[in-house]
Amino acid sequence: MSDKKAQTRERILQAASSALIQRGPAEPSVGEVMGAAGLTVGGFYAHFESKDALMLEAFEQLLARRRASIDDMDPSLTGEERRALVAAFYLSRKHRDSTAQACPIPATVGEMSRLPDEFRDVLNQHVELMAAQLAASPEDTDKALADMALMIGGLALARALGPGELSDRVLRASKSAVR
């Protein structure tokens, strides 16, 4: 793939990632994504076979970045310490309000039943890998799963409420419950 084609593909993926975070993978149109990338719809199929293929790749990339950030943490931290650090960022105003590199799960889970099975497969793999990263031991995995569910639900509710005092309270309450 040429450098120019690779750069164009990356611009499309970045625009798709932003749309996915804000509105989920089903709603944004190809035209909207291509317009946000500064491109015309006509060039879309030179890079992706379908909108689902584009959104799936954007979803995979965003989730992989989340896991990579956990890999960068100090390996001597306990599972509880890892989860507290993740919660401090994940349940922050900055993350709630981000439109670029935020977690796509809150915007995606409600659409999962209408998406191709590959989205569920990617989500399953991510949840398994992330729980293992956040657990101190195999016995701690269920606690990591519970904390992940709490964080995702807290962020989803805070985003739905929009910036404001109640949304901030949801973030604080969720963060304090992560153990």
Poorly predicted tracts of residues: none
Apparent shape: globular
Structural class: mainly alpha
Q: Which architecture per CATH? A: Orthogonal Bundle
Mean of all residue-level pLDDT scores: 94
Gap between N and C termini: 46 Å
Estimate the helix proportion, in percent.
55-70%
The major β-sheet equals:
none
How many separate helices? 9
Q: Could you state the order of secondary-structure elements as H and E?
A: HHHHHHHHH
- Classified in CATH, the superfamily is Tetracycline Repressor, domain 2
| Total beta-strand segments | 0
In terms of DSSP E residues, the strand content is under 5%
Rounded radius of gyration (Å): 17 Å
Q: What is the fold named in CATH at topology level?
A: Tetracycline Repressor, domain 2
Q: Name the CATH class.
A: Mainly Alpha
Tell me the count of domains: 1
Give a nutshell description of this structure.
This is TetR family transcriptional regulator. This protein has helices at residues 3-23, 30-36, 51-71, 79-90, 93-97, 105-108, 117-134, 141-161, 165-177. It has 179 residues and is an all-alpha fold.
Descriptive labels:
68% helix; mainly alpha; 179 residues; Tetracycline Repressor, domain 2; single chain
Q: What does this protein structure show overall?
A:
The protein has 179 residues and is mainly α. It is built from 9 helices and no strands. The chain has helices at residues 3-23, 30-36, 51-71, 79-90, 93-97, 105-108, 117-134, 141-161, 165-177. The model has no long low-confidence stretch (mean pLDDT 94).
